[in-house]
Amino acid sequence: MGRDGNKSCFACCFSTPTTSSSSAIKLLFFIVPLILVSFIVFVLVPRNSTWALIYSLPPSTSAVAAAAANSSEKLGAAVHAESSQQVLDLPSRVVKTVDVGGSSGEATLSDSDEVAVNRSASPPFSAVEAVTKFQELNETKEYSSLNTSITDSDSLDITINRTPNNATTSLNETIALPLKHSRQVRTKLDKVEAGLQRARSAIREAKNGSQLQESDYVPIGPMYWDAKAFHRSYLEMEKQFKVFVYKEGEPPVFHDGPCKSIYSMEGNFIYKLDVDTKFQTKDPQKAHVFYLPFSVAKMVRFVYSRDSRDFSPIRRTVVDYINLVAQKYPYWNRSHGADHFMLACHDWGPEASFSLPHLEKNSIRALCNANTSERFNPVKDVSIPEINLITDKLTGLMGGPSASQRQILAFFAGGVHGPIRPVLLEHWEDKDEDIKVHKYLPRGVNYYDMMRNSKYCICPSGYEVASPRIVEALYNGCVPVLISKSYVAPFSDVLRWKSFSVTVSVDDIPKLKEILMNISTRQYIRMQRRVLQVRRHFEFNSPPKRYDVFHMILHSVWLRRLNVRITDDHGVVAN
Q: Under CATH, domain 408-538 is a member of which superfamily?
């Protein structure tokens, strides 16, 4: 009984129903292969994969839905197919997409959805190029995720993101495309161009935004073509603009220039930029522009032989200098001079720039002699004011009574040279009590006192189109009367000259008094007040002050740099 009882107990403890045994065996056959497959996937599949998030489209876009529904391998294959290219049309701000399945759609982009940098000089680039050209990855096993964004209000959000393996992409999220194994790190030039693109976006947005406020100065009024855009552009310049000054060359021709003459802007600008710490950078890879620090006025004095009348020594000096920096640095050849600039106030400044084709056609030329008949290009070149400085201070050069206390209608005194001044003197010298036109001032009459007592100051061109009288008129609160041919007034990219000056053609010189008398007193008072407001942009200060002539020259160069995009493969494209 005991032995039978033990057998019965043993059977009860270790026996199971037949149906339960069958189920366990089936479950075992299901689980074991699953474990083996999971193990193989875990071992063979890379745990750290590289992904690039290209851009976000609305959830209703067919391309997004199709991309989210397909596997990453299908997407990767589609990237390399012409039928699946995604092209960004910058002018129209529309992304044209063709999904993997072949359906097409369009999604209009807002200002915050356009590409940050177009590195190519060719037409708009594809999504593949956008990915490969903006990678900046540092693949390390210590980090499971990496997010780097290039965002600006006028660009697509080009984001590099390492996504965890178990992450999923919803229809409202960006599309993840696997990249090629060969990584291309974003260059320093790409970063420079990305910053410029953010500046362009900010300037465009400022046109429709509210006026920014500053305690120092806020540009406002009809003296500006677009005060808000100029203000934002100036602030962007202060925030990021960097200039590399080539150190090659020795004084007096290089890194030197006249500081007390009608060519004084040459020497003063060279000196101020050489000692500047805000805009100058020692790292050329961070520079937006490169300054060629030669003085044409000093070349005329030390290189040119007046007896020979041979201009070739000046040309050789310019060519030799640019060849020197082009051989030592890669930047001139990279852009063919498009991000380089020179500055000259001497009459022969344009002629010196003709020494090298790229210098004339590509580089930014800041010239006092801004004469369109001598190949000055307002889109690319910069017109700067001619300032006749006697000392390094403006003491005694500025002032004047209010508009109502000025008794003389118009005034001019100066030498007779060039084609315009003889016409002016022929019609008005000693001909009218209201129009004071003199070849030489009478003894005891002060030139600046005459300006301060005049409503209008006549500024005719001489041998060259520029005249220091324009700035002298502004300094003394006198409304300038510009008489010239083919002259581009200084900073006319920002300043609306017709709001604070009068332009008279050479043919209308005989009608000069009639033209000025037809300007109402109310309108004259408005113009005179604007002169007082705008003259801060022509003031020379040592050290420089915000919005003065030094900063306005830099701002004009900054604007020209915004108009081009430079690439590492010797490409330049105009914006």
A: Glycogen Phosphorylase B; (3.40.50.2000)
